[in-house]
Amino acid sequence: MRIFHSAASLSIISYCAVSSPFVACSSYQDHVEDRKFNHKADQQLSPKMVSDINLHGVLLWASMGFLMPLGVIAVRMSHREEGGRRKALIYLHFVLQILSVLLATTGAIMSIKSFENSFYNNHQRIGLGLYGAIWVQAVAGFLRPHR
């Protein structure tokens, strides 16, 4: 049974790592479609804006799509362990979740500084909701009573 859980965890992580480069940014597509109906259609995204969009996507994928699930897997695995290994997995969970929150905060700050944030599209609204949920989860983790 333990081998099955390890194999399932490894396959989920592998799937996320392999499929992530093929995911497109929905707000970029919204921006392109909005420009079709705009009179300023001859304007192109600057290379800096394209790199900011890519960095924003990588930061938030690493946070929400990689580090946070790894932290969840680590804490789930800690319930089956005893002694020092259990403590190490709990610390790994703690470190992965903190790194995830820091990367998400970096991506959110970059978004606020670099992009137009009128929250008129679903991508921005969902991002704001997820960012709030990340911080609620982090604060709840710190305020959690010890067992």
Q: Which features does this protein show?
A:
0% strand; 147 residues; mainly alpha; elongated; single chain
List the total number of helices: 5
Strand coverage percent: under 5%
Shape: elongated
Main sheet, how many strands, which sense, barrel? none
- Overall mean pLDDT stands at 80
Structural class: mainly alpha
Could you estimate the helical fraction of the residues in percent? over 70%
Tell me the number of strands.
0
Elements, N to C (H/E): HHHHH
Short description:
With 147 residues, the protein is mainly alpha-helical. The chain has helices at 2-19, 26-36, 47-78, 83-114, 122-143.
What does this structure look like?
Helix content is 78%, strand content 0%. It has helices at 2-19, 26-36, 47-78, 83-114, 122-143. The model has no long low-confidence stretch (mean pLDDT 80). The chain is built from five helices and no strands. The protein has 147 residues and is mainly α. The radius of gyration is 19 Å and the shape is elongated. The longest helix is centred in the middle third of the chain and has 32 residues, at 47-78. The protein has a domain at 47-147. Its main location: membrane. It is a multi-pass membrane protein.
